[in-house]
Each structure stands twice: as C-alpha cells, then as structure tokens.
Amino acid sequence: HYADVVSPMPHADVNVDPQQLGGSRHLGDFHYELLKTTLCRPFMQGLYEDDAQCLPALYTNHIFDQLHVLPGQRGPKFVYAHVPSPHSPFVFDEAGNFIGYHPIGNEQFYLGQYKYVSRKVLAAIDSILRQSENPPVVILLSDHGPRGKIAATIGNRHEHWQRVFFAAYFP
User: Which sign does the torsion angle of CA 42, 3, 61, 140 carry?
Assistant: First the structure.
C-alpha cells in the first residue's frame, strides 16, 4: 500500500505524508494486478490508468509543493519528506505530465519519471536554500540504487542496487 511506504518519522517537527491529502485511492501494485485478473477489470477503467488523481501522482507533487512553502515558517525545524518516486508505479513523463498508471514491470517509463523527480528535488533544495531565514542543513539520501530490469541496463551488477546516494549541505 502506497501510504505504508511513506510512514511518518516520529521525531520530525514536520512530516509530509499522504494523510494530508484526505485518504488513499491506491491499492498498490500487487492488488492492482490481482484485480485486473478478476471480473472487476471492466470497472477499473479510469480508476488508475487514466486518473491523474491517483495517490502516487498527487503525493509526489504534494511533497514538492510543501517543501517550497516550509522555509517560510519561522523557527528551526526538522522536516522529513519521503518521496517514494521514482519507484513504481510510474505515473510521470520527463516533463511531469501524468502518463497513466504503470506498475512494476513497466520499466520503460522509469527514466522519464526519474528525470522529472530529479529536477523537482533540485528545485526544492534551491528553494529551501534561497528562502530560509537561517542557512539550513539539507540531507538527501536514497534507500538503494537501481535494481531489477533497470539495473540490467547498466550491467546488472549486484553492487549497483547496494549503492546508496547521500549528499549533505552544511552552511
């Protein structure tokens, strides 16, 4: 379940999480694929594939919107924002347009979503640095590197998915 992936951090002053969006309409890749094999399939049209209101798209954009606003709030704060994208489902193209709901197994959509999310991350960090009253500490990290079919495009070496991106900015 998408909301389970983005659990809040209890010690953060600010958690940007899906509950702020008013609930979840996303079942997760497994349940989505399972329902497509049942009599429910005809009723699923538009529920995810053609619906820009699906939670992964809403949540990803919501996080980045919030990161641009938070520096305007006075006082020191520890902000935790977990962006599960560019993991599947793939819902954005390189320009950030909604392309439909593409669950795991549709890795041809990964690169566009990766480029979009990377640009949003850089824009958010620039905004935080520019708007903060006091110079902030910014820590950016990933949970793993490429794996599966995506890793196969770079040689499918096991150590690629074990590599974790880490960057820190200290004033």
Answer: negative
